[in-house]
Amino acid sequence: PMICTEAGWHSNNYAQFPSTPEVQSRYVVQLFAQSLASRLDAMIWWTWIDPGAGYGDNGLLTQALQRKPAFEAYRVAAEKLGRGSFQRRLSAQELGHPSLEGYQFKNRSGLPLYVLWSNDEGITQTVSLPLPSAQVIDMYGNLLGVQSDSEDGRIDGSIQVNVGANPIYVEARP
Questions:
Q1: How much is the pLDDT for 107?
Q2: Residue in 36, 26, 39, 45 with CA at minimum distance from that of residue 116
Q3: pLDDT level of residue 15 (50, 70, 90 thresholds)
Q4: DSSP string, 16-60
Q5: Is pTM, for the whole model, over 0.85?
C-alpha cells in the first residue's frame, strides 16, 4: 500500500510562506483530488487542530475548536470525491491552457464529476466539457449555477465553465 502520512497547508502567513484561509481551502481540494488520482491508499491531513506556536495554522479547526473554511472544503471533497471513483486526469489540451488542472470522476450515481482549477492565481479560462447539462459547485459546496449545452449558442453536447484559482466541481445532471 502507498500512503501519505502527513500533508497539509496553513491558513496564516507562516515563515516565508504566505497564505490565507481561502488558499488553505484550495489546497485541501487539490490534495484530495491528486491523492485519489495517484491511487494512494490513504492520505492524512496534518493536522486536525491548529498546533500552535512554531507550526503555523495547519489545522482544519482552530485551537478553540472552531471550524475553518478548509474544514468545509474537506467535508465537500470527501462527499463529492470520496464517494466516487477516479476516471482520469484531463490533459492540458482538453483544458485549453497549461496552468489548468482537472480530474474526471464518476459520482456515486455513476455520472461524470469533474474537479477543476487554475494553478495560476491570475488565470481564469473557459473550459468545454462533454456534458449536456451540469451543476457547478464551489469548493465549499455552494451551487454556482447550472450550465446547459445550448447556453453558448451551439448545441454540440458540451457545456462551458469558467475555471479560476478556486477549485470547482462540475457534476453531470441526470
A1: 94
A2: 26
A3: confident
A4: TB---HHHHHHHHHHHHHHHHHTT-SEEEES-SB--BTTTBS-SS
A5: yes
What SS3 state is found at 67?
Answer: strand
Residue with cell string 478556486: 166
Contacts of 137 (CB under 8 A, 6+ apart): 76, 80, 143, 144, 168, 169, 170, 171
3 state DSSP class of 71? helix
Question: Each residue of 39-67: b (16+ CB within 10 Å) or e?
Answer: eeeebebebeebeeeeebbbbbeeeeeee
Q: Collapsing DSSP states into helix, strand and coil, what is residue 82?
A: coil
pLDDT of residue 5: 93
Strands 85-89 and 100-106: antiparallel
Q: pLDDT tens-digit profile of 18-49? A: 899 999 999 999 999 999 999 999 999 999 99
